[in-house]
Write a structure and sequence with these properties.
By secondary structure, the protein is of the alpha/beta class. It has two domains: 98 residues, Rossmann fold (3-Layer(aba) Sandwich); 53 residues, no CATH class. The chain is 40% helix and 19% strand. The chain has a three-stranded antiparallel β-sheet. A hairpin with a 2-residue loop joins β7 and β8. The longest helix is centred in the N-terminal third of the chain and has 19 residues. The protein is globular, with a radius of gyration of 21 Å. The N and C termini lie far apart (63 Å). Its EC number is 6.1.1.4. It comes from marine sediment metagenome. InterPro entries: aa-tRNA-synth_Ia (IPR002300), Leu-tRNA-ligase (IPR002302), Rossmann-like_a/b/a_fold (IPR014729).
Length: 200
C-alpha cells in the first residue's frame, strides 16, 4: 500500500487506462436499454471553474448510476462556442475570436478529462465547427420549408457603437456592457418560429 495518495500520478494512470479501453464509448449495437444523459455545454469564454463541476457532477453521478443499473449510457460532451461571451472575451484579450475559442476548447477538454467524468469523447461537438453547425442549418431549412420559420419585426436592444443587438443581460443601467454607449430600443427584422404550429 502506498504511504501517500498522489492524485496527479494515480488519477492520470487510471484515466489513461479508461481511455485506452474506451470504457465510456457507446455502441449502437448494444442490446442494453438506452439512456441519454446530457450536460449543458460550457461556453468557451475562459477556463472552467468550480461552478462548472458543481453543475456537471450531478449529471455525471446520475449517468454512472444508470450505467450501474445496466443501461447503455450515452453521455456526450461539447463546447458552446458561438455567441457574445466568447467573442467579448477574445476582444478583451486582443485575440481573434476563433483562435481564442479553439484555445479555450483545447484547455477545457484537458480540464474535463482530468476530472474523470464518464463522457463519451468520441461524440464531442464544438458548435462553431462546420461538422456541427451544418446540422443546425439543415434543421432550420427543414423548418423553413415546412412554413415554420418566418421573418418579422420585433423590438431589440441596439448598441449604436458596436452595431449589434444586445441581450437584456448585456444592458447595464441603459448602457452597453462592452463599450459603454447608450442603448436604444428599435424594431428589427428577425427570424421567428411557429412553435405552436410545430407542436400541433
Amino acid at each position: 500500500m502506498i504511504a501517500k495518495y498522489n492524485p496527479q500520478e494515480i488519477e492520470k494512470k487510471w484515466q489513461q487506462k479508461w481511455a485506452e479501453d474506451r470504457l465510456y464509448e457507446v455502441s449502437e449495437a448494444s442490446t442494453k436499454p438506452k439512456w441519454y444523459a446530457l450536460t449543458m455545454f460550457p461556453y468557451t469564454s475562459g477556463d472552467l471553474h468550480i461552478g462548472h463541476w458543481y453543475a456537471m457532477a450531478p449529471s455525471d453521478v446520475h449517468a454512472r448510476f444508470k450505467r450501474m443499473q445496466g443501461y447503455n449510457v450515452l453521455h456526450p460532451m461539447g463546447f458552446d462556442a458561438f455567441g457574445l461571451p466568447a467573442e467579448n472575451a477574445a476582444i478583451s484579450h486582443g485575440i481573434h475570436p476563433f483562435t481564442w475559442t479553439m484555445q479555450n476548447t483545447d484547455n477545457m477538454r484537458r480540464q474535463l478529462k482530468s476530472i474523470g467524468a464518464i463522457y463519451d469523447w468520441s461524440r464531442e461537438v464544438v458548435t462553431c465547427l462546420p461538422e456541427y453547425y451544418k446540422w443546425t442549418q439543415w434543421f432550420f431549412l427543414k423548418l423553413y420549408q415546412a412554413g415554420l420559420a418566418y421573418r418579422g419585426k420585433a423590438p431589440v436592444n441596439w448598441c449604436p457603437r458596436c452595431q449589434t443587438v444586445l441581450a437584456n443581460e448585456q444592458v447595464v443601467d441603459g448602457f452597453c456592457e462592452r463599450c459603454g454607449a447608450a442603448v436604444s430600443r428599435r424594431d428589427l427584422e428577425q427570424w421567428f418560429f411557429r412553435i405552436t404550429k410545430y407542436a400541433d
